[in-house]
């Protein structure tokens, strides 16, 4: 039985449509996989950056405590704000190459908590350096990250242990034996808000 030319053309068209559908499905799956991989890579990169910023907040406090020891000062000098305020942001001074804690902000939503990133060298600041402060420095842009550090007193309770005191209170008659450092970083990725915190307890023990 011979097949008519019209029938052959119709069969060929169906085959082309089916083949095109298979190819489009394969390409779509590949693009979805690539897109997912890119999103996962960006999320991973953001988490690494946030983790480094959170850890840096803790290390800044440690460096200030250790510098106080070396200078013969009280271990918590510069680690307490006015009126028993224990929340602030680490501030780096590129000119002096030194860190301090500014206790002006009390919430991670404050403009002071924004992290800026240098995109152009400025003075002693190099490209990529991330800093915080009241204003965005020349040569820097606002990054997706915010950071707040809390330095809460650890007070000896007279029973061989200690109590944690938060902003607004102090150790009173009890001895301040250390600090609880909590460094919190907040950022947004893919339209979702993310938060990461690192906590460490440091004591006045040398």
Q: Which key terms come to mind for this protein?
A:
1 helix; 32% strand; alpha+beta; 8-stranded antiparallel beta sheet; 206 residues
Sheet-strand content, in percent, reads 25-35%
Rg, Å, rounded: 28 Å
Shape: elongated
Mean pLDDT reading: 87
Structural class: alpha+beta
Continuous helix count:
1
Helix content: 25-40%
**How widely separated are the two ends?**
100 Å
Which blocks of ≥5 consecutive residues have pLDDT under 50?
none
Q: What can be said about the biggest beta sheet? A: 8 strands, antiparallel
Total strands: the figure is 8
Order of helices and strands: HEEEEEEEE
How many distinct folded domains?
1
Short description:
This protein is α+β, with helices and mostly antiparallel strands and 206 residues long. It has one helix spanning 5-71; strands at 87-93, 98-102, 114-118, 130-132, 140-156, 162-164, 176-189, 192-203.
What does this structure look like?
The protein has one domain (34-203). The chain is built from one helix and eight strands; from the N terminus they run αββββββββ. It has one helix at residues 5-71, and strands spanning 87-93, 98-102, 114-118, 130-132, 140-156, 162-164, 176-189, 192-203. Strands 1, 2, 3, 4, 5, 6, 7 and 8 form an eight-stranded antiparallel β-sheet that branches. β7 and β8 form a beta hairpin. The longest helix is centred in the first third of the chain and has 67 residues, at 5-71. The mean pLDDT is 87.
